[in-house]
Amino acid sequence: MNQITAYAKNIRISGQKIFLVVNQIKKMKPTDAVKILDFVPNKSSKIIKKVLLSAMANARNNFGHKDESLLIKEIIISKGPVFKRSRAVARGRVHPILKRTTHIKVILEAEETKEVPKAPEVSKGEDPKSNIKNQKSK
């Protein structure tokens, strides 16, 4: 089974918000997941859809797989760098603001297509029964 990957790094959205959408599409076919993501009203759904379409394009162009033979094996959400900002509050104090980023890794798996073995070819000039007689006498 082939594994196809696509990455999106340093996405300016919290990992918690992405998890909400990712849990809806795990273990689905990518074509079905893209249809579902069209109707999810979150910012993260557009980002995940973009990475998923990138992985499908990688499978098509680099490995020659059809979209119907693909399956989402896993979607990995990991923490990226955190931008630290501050907000001034009363009495000269400062409260920290953490602007979190996220890395997304989509791994697709291609189903193996079973090929039917071809029947042995018989040349037109020979009688197929004559080959059997010759093999028995040896």
Automatic annotation (TrEMBL):
One function term, GO molecular function aspect: structural constituent of ribosome
A matching Pfam family: Ribosomal_L22
Keyword Phosphoprotein tagged: no
This protein's record includes keyword Zinc: no
Assembly and binders: Part of the 50S ribosomal subunit.
Family: Belongs to the universal ribosomal protein uL22 family.
Name of protein: Large ribosomal subunit protein uL22
Organism (species): Candidatus Curtissbacteria bacterium RIFCSPHIGHO2_01_FULL_40_12
Lineage per the UniProt record: Bacteria, Candidatus Curtissiibacteriota
